[in-house]
Amino acid sequence: MPVGAPKDNKNAEKWTNRLNVKTDFHNEKEYQDYIEANIEKFTKDVIGLGKYISHETNKAIQIQNFAGTKERVDLKIVGSKGVAMVELKYPRHDLPELRNSIGQCLNYITTAKKVGYKFDKMGLVSPVYDQRIFDIIQEFNLPIELYFLSKKQHSKITVCQTTEDQKKI
Question: How many separate domains does the chain show?
Answer without folding.
Answer: 1
